[in-house]
Each structure stands twice: as structure tokens, then as C-alpha cells.
Amino acid sequence: MSLYDEKPWLARYDEGQPTSLTLEFDDALAMFRASVAANPDGDALRYFDGRITYAELDAMTDALAAGLLDAGFATGERLALYLQNVPQYVIGLVATWKAGGIAVNINPMNRERELDLLLTDSGASVLLTLETMYRDVAASVVGGTSVRTVITTSEREYQTRDDERFLGGAPRVPAPEGVLDMAGLIERFRGTTPPPVSFDPQDTAVLTYTSGTTGPPKGAMNTHANLVFNSQTYRQLCELGPDDVVLGIAPLFHITGLVGHVTIALLLGAPLILFHRFEPAGTIELIRDERPTFTVGSITVFIALMNAPNADSDALRSLTKIWSGGAPIPPSTVKAFSAAFGQYIHNIYGLTETTSPSHGVPAHAEAPVDEASGALSVGVPVYDTVVRIVGEDGQDLPVGEVGEIVTTGPQVVKGYWNKPEETANAIPGGALHTGDVGYMDDRGWFYIVDRKKDQINAGGYKVWPREVEDVLYEHEAVREAAVIGVPDEYRGETVKAFVSLRAGKEATAEELIAFTKERMAAYKYPRQIEFLDEIPKTVSGKLLRRELRDR
User: Using one digit for the tens of pLDDT, what is the confidence trace for 357-387?
Assistant: First the structure.
């Protein structure tokens, strides 16, 4: 039997742990209901000074689900969550399931063009968003989409302590005519129980959009079985229980935040701490106040905490279970963090299409560092998961050789929303061809060494160069544009654009950066612009990004 099928790490690092997990629930809603029954008076959500218990969350989501059904929401329809890290995200997610629907995760940094694309592709009939985001972005978009019902809410709902570091100066904005207020809808239907629903484990629970390795964003269909399985994976791998407190440091629209924060808390019946958006110094104060024990987030978050003005050796004392994924982690950063706070950062690796982890460093283990490359291992395959390294011919490569990572397991999505051809290409027979390149050592540890395609990974956010180029081409002075990722000490990788200008036209780097910033999510626009007389291309006209990287 090859190492691809064995689990040598289990005997070495997790002796006595199971090699497989059995789904304890058919769907994510059943998982939540079990926690309500087991811990009705325990905190489900903490938001600044606000508290929502599991019983209260159950009642609120019943009411919102009843309100959705009253507004015409039907089984299988989609509700788009266009929100920051606020309690309303969790309320909207669970209420969508109670109404028999599918939630659609949308990045709150998306602007009009991006929001329109995702609402149109998903066919969402309901949009739940913050009042300010509706006013500033969504109001000009929804009329041209399938959205029939808009529900708005305030980031200041469900909290009693104002904290400008997180909330900014966002005032309450009255809902315009034809738009429903979430708090009013819940109050109107409070005490109403929606009709019971049941899901097959393979029913889609959430559409989580990813740019993948080619083309426009695709809606990965994360099933109920996917969510339940990887929630249980987090619980087992990270040794979590109902006494843990989860710090919601990753964006909830991202697969890490969805599973590593929301559904793991719902499985455990544990509190989830939310605080609108990340701010380093304020987050340290929240950690001191709320005493969370577990979190998972991008390495850039932990770098920011190390550099916060109020960081000291006791700042993260309660946070004893830390995992990081989404971007490469330098071994030196893990050492520096441990020296600063006394806590070890465990690596974890996965994709939207693997519903968060496919690999991880088990609790009480430390990831090895490859002597040749200096790379930190992303961990070992999690339960019931077979990961292969394949060559260009699709055949398994020997231990130590570099090839594409191909993952098969219960966490792999069933496909992309309304994209059968892309599904067949990326997930043939249920085996996810990740587009990431790496290798496995002789002990079963995996290492990522590169990406197969041109995708840029900026602090855990995925950027497709063509999208940035298309926006640059909208500027009247731009003749040609090519975008690549370049090393960045803080984000791991950042976006750089090479631009050639039209004859007789002028533009500065600052002008082009500002132009793209107005039209794209904050993580996508280029931080660097270099002007060239000609963009290098092949004879057939294809951009030579490799040559640009070599510069």
C-alpha cells in the first residue's frame, strides 16, 4: 500500500485517533438544532457587549424564516448574504436553511460590477445586506437581477457598546420604500414556527464563489454533508469541545470563516465572537475581555496582532488553539509569533472546493520545515481523505517529486453552480484537481511550492489577473496591461500591473491605482504599476507573464 493510501501521521502524531469520521447529522440545520437542545441558555453569538443565546438564535431564525416564506421565498431558492462579520450573517444563514433555501456568500468588499455578476449567476431571489452597503452599492444593482426581496440591517444592531475602531461612523439609514428591515421582520413574525424542512446530505447548503484557476467566479456548491464533515474535522483535528470559545477573525463569507468559525461553533454549541471587521489593537482588547480559545485565519492577521501597539506577552494567553490557512506561512513568522505570545500557529490547507481543510497540522504536533526549500508543511491529509501528487500525464508521482495536488474526500464539493463543463474539468469523478503544485515527503507531510496557473494569492484572497486587466483597459490611456503577483512581506503576494499607454495619452501610476480602486474590491486593485513601451507577448499574442515575473 502506498503512502497516498496510508495515514502514517496518525500513528506518529495522533495515536489513538480515528482514521475516519462518520457524519453525525444529515444536514447543517440538524447540527444547529442539536446544540439548541443541548445548550439553550449558552451564548451562541457575542458582538461587542451584545449576547444572543442558542434559544434566542433559534427563535430569531424561526421568525426570519417565516418572514422569508411570507415574502414568497420557496424551497431551493437562494438568499445572498452581503454582510460584514455581524450576527446577522449567522441569523440569515440559519434562517435560509429553515426556509428550505441555499445561502450565497458574497464578499462585502465587492463593488457594483462584482455584486451584479454574483447575484445574476446565483439567481438569488433575496438579498440581505447592511443599510450602508445597500445605499452605497446594492441599490443601483438589484433592479437588473433576479432579486425580488431586499432586507437591510444595521451593523450597530445586537450590540450595546459603540467602538469606532470596528464600526466606523456608520449611522442608521432608514430602509427605503420597498425594502424590508430585518429587525422589524423578525419582530413581526416572532413566535411563528416555519414548516419543518429536511435536506438530503448532498443538497447544496451554500454557494461560495471562487475565481478558481481559470475564468470568471464560479459558485462552489458546498453541500450539507460537506459542512457537517469538515465541522467535525475541525473539532477532531483541533481538539475542540463545548467549553471552547471561537474568535471570528476570518471573513464569514470566506470558506474559512463559514466552517472554521460559524459551523464549528454551531456543532459545538459554543460561543462565536464577532466584531464587524478586523482591527489589530481592538481585537487584542476583545481577546482580553472575551477570552476566546480557538481561531483560524490568514497569517496576515497574526502578523498584524504581533505588531499592534498594545501587544504584549499576555495579550493572547487564552487563545491556546490557533490555526492559519489561506496563504503561505514563513517558518520565521511562526517562530516570531511563538516568541511574542507563547502560542504555536498550526498550519491548515484547503480550498473553497474542499469546504475548508483537506490538510492540517494536528493539535500537539508541529509542522516540519523542508530543508531544501525552507517551506513549512501545510499538514497531513485529514480524515477519509486521499491526496495524490500527479504529473502532467495524470499518473501518481513518487514521494518527494513535485506535481499537482489532487484531492478526494467527503469535503470535496459536488461541483460548480450551473457549470457542468467546469465541474467535469476540475472535479472528474469527484477528484479535485486543485491547480496547486506541491509534494509529499516520506512521512506523509505535504508542502505547497507553487500554483499551477497565474492566480494571485494576496493575504489569502484569490485574485484572477484577467479581471484586473479588464478594469485597467477601461481607462482611456491604457493600451495594454498585464497583471502578475509579486512577493510582499505582509500579504505574501500582492498585485502588480505592467501597463503600456496609448500614443498621445498620459497617466500616472497613482491615477491608475485610484481608477482600479474605485471599481474593484480592496484586495484586487494593483498596489504597484510599472510602465513599459511594450508588454512581452508570444508570436500568437499571448501575454508572457513568466517573463514579467522574471524581471
Answer: 999 999 989 999 987 767 889 999 999 999 9
Q: With b meaning 16 or more CB within 10 Å and e meaning fewer, what string describes 268-278?
A: bbbbbbbbbbb
| Separation of alpha carbons 530 and 24, rounded Å | 54
List Cβ neighbours of 22 (8 Å cut-off, separation of 6 or more). Answer: none
443's grid cell = 512521512
Q: Which CATH class is domain 48-198?
A: alpha beta
Q: Structural domain boundaries of the chain?
A: 48-198, 456-550
CA 467/CA 521 separation, integer angstroms: 11
Per cent of the chain over pLDDT 70 is: 92
CA distances in angstroms from 327 to 233, 303, 350, 462, 500, listed in the order given: 20, 12, 10, 10, 31
Residue 481, pLDDT above cutoff 90 = no
Average pLDDT over residues 83-88: 96
pLDDT given for residue 12 in this prediction: 43
536 falls in which pLDDT band (50, 70, 90)?
confident
Sheet with 432-440: strands ordered across? 386-390, 403-408, 432-440, 446-451
456-550 CATH: 3.30.300.30
* Residue among 224, 221, 197, 222 nearest 75 (CA): 197
For 274, half-sphere exposure in the C-beta direction (CA atoms, 13 angstrom radius) is 33
Q: Which SS3 state, helix, strand or coil, does residue 273 take? A: strand
User: Which stretches of 180-263 are assigned E, i.e. beta strand?
Assistant: 180-181, 204-210, 218-223, 246-247
8 A C-beta contact, residue 216 and residue 463: no
Closest by CA to 412, choosing from 258, 221, 252, is 221
- Quote the pTM value: 0.84
In angstroms, the CA 411 to CA 325 distance is 16
Q: What is the pLDDT of residue 170?
A: 66
What pLDDT, on a 0 to 100 scale, did the predictor assign at position 129?
98
β-strand partners of 323: 296, 346
- Amino acid residing at 540: S
